[in-house]
């Protein structure tokens, strides 16, 4: 139908060009923004927190069927809101691998020297630090003794070689093994060629017995590149009192070793240590993250993204307190997760779309050592180089009605943006304050840190801990959903600002040196 062609072409050109130009320049009207922000409500936040923190969710442990149920709930919300799936093979769920394993009950340590012998068995009078190797290898090696904690952290072993040796470290207390990891000194020893590590600790028998028994409990660990690079040597923990005779034969006095005021490192001549220790893998499991994407409206900026994150997991079922064993994790962090869904709903309803894309991310494994965010940072839906900010919410439903701590403000221009947005919205009656607890290192204790270490500027919205923190009593009836809604509205305004700004957020140069490079 050739006659129609001359009319059609200009029409098509008009139809094609006009909306594009409009999207690039037009900001949403104040009324459109107000309508979007009003979808963030107290009732919906309370409702979502109630679903996720219900006793039937059994504390959303990583991994657990109830965590998967939580992930499915969030995925169905993302689907309903029309977000694009950002997970595996066209779904909203991104899975990472977890191993369930158990220390072998036959694992042991033997110390021998000049006719004296000491022997410990895991589960009875020896415990385990970090993860044992998977394969059995019985090691017999000369001993190097580390007394206390060497002050020179760069060259902790000084001129003493630990290559091919088992290190015995005498400590007055049981060392802390955070998130399945080992203390830095052990990692340094493994790097320097040590074959094993035995902590000789001065701990009361009762405390020690419980710890030894718990060493045989099955445990879940994430399987990832970080994990493999850690250099796995067997690490055992034994009570020092049983070693007294062998030490004395080698010219060391237990009483003197317990005095850690005088740290030192020396080869323990004539003493060998034999370690036979391994763990058995009993199951290969996975855990979910949930990822939904709202495509940006600006063709030039939609390749960049702002991430809104929170962790959907909590610590599951545990030690009962006042007859309740379900750790509901309503504030920690069903509150922040509800916030992520509310933000997705608000942004999905806004026309025109924000210029940059938005990623709505609910991670798991936070309580186990920031597993899900670590995995997401390795496998992001939008490359981290194009991820301009992470706005993380972890615990936003308790404490002061009019104040929220925004951790990380000083590290990038996001801080000034947030402060300005807060001044522009006095109706939210929400004061943004800096990190109130710098000594507690919260900057390194939630999911945003995996973004920050890889160069993505972050803000962390956090109301601080309370007496129900990490207890079964962190439950929905204590949540101040009205306050949480005002915080989420604040995050909406900050996110909108960042998504539409011509310039992406910039690090403070000194912070970049400290945070970004330190983590790599
Ligand atoms: Zn948390």
Notes on the protein architecture:
- The protein is an alpha/beta fold.
- Helices cover 32% and strands 25% of the residues.
- It contains 16 helices and 20 strands.
- The strands form 3 sheets. Strands 1, 2, 9, 12, 13, 16, 17, 18, 19 and 20 form a 10-stranded mixed sheet that branches.
- Helix 13 links the parallel strand 18 and strand 19.
- Helix 13 packs across helix 15.
- The chain is elongated.
- The N terminus is likely disordered.
- Zinc ion (ZN) binds next to helix 10.
- The site of zinc ion has 7 residues, from helix 10.
Look at the helices and sheets and give the structural class: alpha/beta
- Average pLDDT rating: 91
Oligomer, anyone?
Answer: single chain
Poorly predicted spans: 1-23
Q: Helix count?
A: 16
Count of extended strands: 20
Strand content: 25-35%
**What helical percentage do the residues reach?**
25-40%
Q: How many whole angstroms does the radius of gyration measure?
A: 27 Å
Mind summarizing the main beta sheet? 10 strands, mixed
Ligands present: zinc ion
General shape: elongated
Distance between the termini: 64 Å
Concise structural overview:
This protein has 520 residues and is an alpha/beta fold.
List keywords for this structure.
520 residues, alpha/beta, eight-stranded mixed β-sheet, 16 helices, 32% helix, binds zinc ion
Topology:
Elements: H1 5-25, H2 30-37, H3 42-52, H4 65-80, E1 84-85, E2 93-103, E3 108-113, E4 116-121, E5 126-128, E6 138-147, E7 166-171, H5 184-191, E8 196-201, H6 205-214, E9 219-222, H7 225-228, E10 235-239, H8 244-249, H9 254-257, E11 264-276, E12 279-294, E13 305-311, E14 317-321, E15 324-326, H10 330-348, E16 357-363, H11 366-369, H12 371-378, E17 387-393, E18 403-407, H13 414-424, E19 431-433, H14 448-452, E20 458-462, H15 481-500, H16 509-519
The chain binds zinc ion (ZN).
């Amino acid at each position: 139908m050739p006659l129609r062609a001359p009319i059609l072409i200009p029409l098509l050109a008009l139809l094609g060009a006009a909306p594009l130009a409009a999207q690039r320049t037009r900001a949403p009207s104040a009324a459109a923004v107000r309508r979007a922000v009003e979808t963030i409500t107290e009732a919906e936040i309370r409702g979502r927190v109630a679903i996720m923190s219900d006793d039937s969710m059994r504390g959303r442990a990583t991994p657990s069927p109830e965590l998967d149920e939580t992930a499915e709930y969030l995925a169905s919300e993302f689907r309903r809101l029309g977000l694009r799936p950002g997970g595996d093979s066209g779904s909203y769920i991104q899975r990472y691998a977890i191993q369930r394993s158990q220390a072998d009950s036959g694992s042991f340590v033997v110390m021998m020297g000049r006719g004296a012998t000491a022997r410990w068995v895991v589960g009875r009078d020896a415990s385990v630090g970090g993860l044992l190797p998977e394969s059995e290898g019985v090691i017999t090696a000369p001993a190097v003794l580390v007394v206390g904690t060497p002050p020179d952290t760069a060259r902790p072993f000084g001129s003493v070689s630990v290559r091919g040796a088992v290190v015995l470290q005498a400590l007055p207390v049981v060392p802390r093994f955070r998130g399945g990891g080992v203390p830095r000194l052990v990692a340094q020893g493994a790097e320097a060629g040590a074959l094993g590590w035995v902590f000789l600790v001065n701990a009361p028998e009762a405390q020690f017995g419980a710890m030894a028994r718990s060493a045989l409990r099955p445990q879940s660990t994430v399987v990832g590149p970080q994990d493999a690079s850690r250099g796995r040597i067997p690490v055992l923990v034994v009570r020092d009192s049983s070693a007294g005779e062998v030490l004395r034969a080698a010219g060391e006095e237990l009483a003197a070793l317990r005095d850690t005021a005088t740290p030192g490192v020396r080869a323990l001549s004539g003493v060998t240590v034999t370690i036979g220790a391994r763990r058995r893998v009993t199951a290969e499991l996975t855990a979910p993250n949930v990822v939904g994407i709202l495509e940006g409206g600006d063709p030039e900026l939609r390749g960049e993204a702002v991430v809104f994150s929170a962790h959907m997991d909590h610590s599951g079922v545990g030690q009962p307190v006042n007859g309740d064993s379900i750790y509901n994790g309503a504030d920690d962090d069903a509150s922040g997760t509800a916030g992520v869904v509310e933000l997705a709903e608000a942004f999905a309803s806004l026309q025109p779309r924000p210029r940059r894309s938005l990623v709505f991310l609910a991670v798991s494994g936070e309580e186990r050592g920031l597993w899900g965010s670590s995995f997401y940072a390795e496998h992001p839906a939008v490359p981290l180089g194009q991820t301009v900010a992470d706005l993380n919410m972890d615990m936003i439903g308790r404490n002061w009605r009019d104040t929220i701590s925004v951790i990380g403000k000083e590290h990038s221009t996001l801080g000034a943006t947030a402060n300005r947005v807060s001044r522009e919205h006095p109706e939210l009656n929400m004061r943004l304050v800096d990190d109130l607890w710098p000594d507690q290192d919260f900057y390194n204790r939630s999911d945003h840190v995996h973004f920050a270490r890889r160069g993505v500027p972050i803000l962390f919205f956090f109301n601080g801990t309370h007496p129900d923190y990490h207890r079964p009593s962190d439950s929905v009836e204590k949540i101040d959903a009205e306050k949480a809604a005002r915080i989420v509205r604040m995050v909406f305004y900050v996110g909108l600002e960042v998504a539409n700004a011509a310039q992406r957020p910039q690090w403070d140069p000194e912070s970049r040196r400290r945070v970004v490079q330190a983590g790599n």
